[in-house]
Specification:
The protein is an alpha+beta fold and about 160 residues long. It has one domain. The protein has five helices and seven strands; from the N terminus they run βαβααββαββαβ. The longest helix has 14 residues. The protein is globular.
Length: about 160
């Protein structure tokens, strides 16, 4: 049975509350659940976003206007798999290439698995991932991929874990 997500607020300058939870989730080793991360927009900021119709989203070649990152923990069980990050964004194709041109290349030990205009990019993470570095990189990447969306100091994470 699914439960309501746990919400963790953090700031660009202090991701400690989220990093502690990520370490706890990873330490379980079961690979279950996921964490969505994005800017903590105010109601006023959300109201300024351009409306997107269902039909427009269906036929558009781009992802969401407000970027969102997702982390899934590694699984060490019977079917081991590495942890992954992904970022859905609305900036079009080759986001990782553009980030690299802007001085924010995917870290060397992360393995690119996808970079799609509509579905975003996905990378596998090394077993010894530093979660503080990961969160910092994701926040900086989402900031650069959100030219039309304000991303300030405040961020939010929704932790989804099955019972």
């Amino acid at each position: 049975m699914a439960t309501s997500p746990e919400v963790v607020e953090f700031t660009r300058s202090d991701s400690g509350p989220l990093v502690r939870r990520l370490r706890e989730i990873a330490a379980r080793g079961d690979g279950r659940g996921w964490v969505n991360i994005g800017p903590a927009l105010t109601d006023a900021e959300y109201s300024m976003l351009p409306p997107r119709t269902g039909l427009g989203a269906w036929f558009s070649g781009r992802g969401p206007v407000v970027p969102m990152a997702t982390w899934t923990p590694a699984s060490a069980g019977g079917r081991p798999r590495p942890g992954q990050i992904g970022v859905a964004h609305g900036t079009g194709p080759n986001a990782l290439g553009r980030l690299e041109e802007e001085g924010l290349a995917l870290p060397v030990s992360w393995i690119k698995r996808q970079d799609h205009a509509k579905h975003g990019f996905v990378a596998e993470l090394p077993d010894d991932i530093d979660y503080s570095t990961m969160v910092d990189w994701l926040v900086r990447a989402m900031t650069r991929l959100s030219a039309t969306v304000p991303t300030g100091e405040h961020w939010i994470a929704e932790i989804h874990l099955a019972d």
